[in-house]
Amino acid sequence: MVAARSRARRTVRRTGLAVALAALTLAAGVGSAPASGVTGGTPATGYTFAAHVQVGDSVRGCSGALIDPEWIATSAACFAGVGGAPTVATTVTVGRADLDATGGQQRRVVDVVVHPDRELALAKLSAPVIDVAPVPIAAVAPTAGETLQVLGYGRTATTWVPRRLHRGDLTVQTVGGATIDLAPAAGASVGVCKGDSGGPALRPRGAGFELVGVHATSGQAGCLDAPAGATATATETRLDDIAAWVRQTVRGGAFVRLPTSAAVLDTRGSIGGAPGVKAAGATTSFQVTGVGGVPATGVTAVLVDVTAVTTTAGMYLTVFPEGTTRPAALSTLNVTANQILSNSAVVNVPASGKLSVYNNGGGVHIIVDVQGYYTRTGTSGGGYVPVTPTRLVDTRSGLGGGGTTTIPSGGSRTFPFTGGVIPAGASTAFVDLIATGATAQGWIGTYATGGTSRSVMDYVPGTTSHGVAVRLGTDGRATFTNNSGSPIHLVMTATGYFTGAPTTGAGLRTLAARRLVDTRSNPAPMPANGTVDIATGLPPGATAVVNFVVVDNTAAGYLHAWPADGTEPGTSLSNYPPTADLARGGMAKVPVGTDGKIRVRNVSAGTTNLVVDLQAWYPSS
């Protein structure tokens, strides 16, 4: 920001918009088209939500504001008006007024959504920023004569690239259908310069601020190397009337549970187009969008059931978005020789609509079913609501109805799910499903009234468990089938549910899956009945979608998991067998504490190592 040399208040003509937008974005280095800053303003402190956007090493620099833990609002010109993943590496710095100092947080931009009619871009960050409070978007338009505070990292009256946040006050002249025209008050000399593009215009609210607009164009009077005829005006992109669009864009994906899980890969046959046993080190890609009821477009992630049919050795599978670098340390499913075993996983869907699966050893057939998909369209699906882990079904005690008998080979049983922690009207229950007492391998199918059965879990002798999405009928009930030569008991613990509308509950936030902890290297194996606290890097109140992998255990057991500052539940997650199985994984959803941590207890008479991978998350609803 720089001092304006003219107090003229005429607005920038729309015919000059393209030139003005280009002028407001600034190259990183001194020389061609440098970035701008608030001229005539003062160095700003305390605006921790202010963001600096750096496109490439020297392509351009812009300003912006954190509006959500993983999204910033800025100018579409910063990304040349193009949405999607940036083609040039782009870094956002939040909470650092002086870019040459330390502190704050830096994130990569992984996706850009451009408003169809406004000079506005929403940029998604590679991971949430948890130590900075986002600035809320104003619900009420400004009025003529109102004073707004403007921020920017751009050029000043004396410095091409100040690398410092500046602020100043401008007065609202007129409010249009999509823009707000600003000018300095009489006698003042404040303006918006190159590099301020996308910076926030703020209204004080209580002890904080609300975001009224982002910088779009400027007359640039008072800016270093200002063009001839520069004026002291600026135009902001108005936000209050498109706040609903912003909320819908950033809220995450609503979940649509398919009536019957879609088979997208089965290497025992032609499904997925990759038949045959997969050798150690092989990577197999397959289509998930446009298949079996999954839409061809608008899908951000899928909930899959991944099954390994092993032949020769113990190994693991890793499912990841096609075209991305496989996370070398992560596993989706761990199995031993001669097992048929499954696990659930949430996986991001790239633009190609394809996923890849890697197997690290042995010969294996791979089966992948899509239980449901996530979409940001806003017209279908439901949001997620976590609940206190509550046991709904236990055929050993008769909980859930149907008596205390096992479910026989080929048998089925219907259970009610709503009326307690899961309310009537919920579309889908998310439960930790346990098959126990099995003497043979088999699989469990589930369907709502009027549906057909498809596997959600392949189990092995003994006890098998992991999280699954259970589609509910309008009567709140679901049927489970036992497809094996062995009778089994079923135990189900509800950990959450999906609502019946896309605007209620929380949307799924995607990220690049990453490892949170591996006690084989740090801190140490978990003792019998011992606990470990795990930092998730998620905001307070969030729910983490994790894969728990038990490794090198010395006895059978199970896990408890809960917010680190919360109350320990009495129900189990991720039941694991004795030592013969080497490693066993189970997907779960666990709320995090106010410090962003979850606590896990090893409920066992033996020790174990624990590996925890983060797949996705939901914000507080």
Describe the structure.
Keywords: Signal. InterPro entries: CLIP_Serine_Protease, Peptidase_S1_PA, Peptidase_S1_PA_chymotrypsin, Peptidase_S1A, Trypsin_dom. Pfam families: Trypsin (PF00089). By secondary structure, the protein is mainly beta. Helices cover 3% and strands 45% of the residues. It contains 2 helices and 37 strands. The chain has a 6-stranded antiparallel barrel. A 6-stranded antiparallel barrel has the order 2-3-4-7-6-5. The longest helix is centred in the N-terminal third of the chain and has 8 residues. It is elongated and about 85 Å long. The N terminus is likely disordered.
Short précis:
With 621 residues, the protein is an all-beta fold. The protein has two helices and 37 strands.
What does the main sheet amount to? 6 strands, antiparallel, barrel
Shape: elongated
Uncertain residue ranges: 2-23, 27-36
Which bin fits the share of residues in helices? under 10%
> How confident is the prediction overall: mean pLDDT?
91
Given the helix and strand composition, which structural class is it? Answer: mainly beta
Beta-strand content estimate: over 45%
Distance between the termini: 38 Å
How many whole angstroms does the radius of gyration measure?
27 Å
Largest sheet strand order: 8-9-10-13-12-11
Find the count of extended strands (DSSP E, 2+ residues). Answer: 37
Domain Peptidase S1: 38-251
Protein name: S1 family peptidase
Pfam families: Trypsin
Keywords: Signal
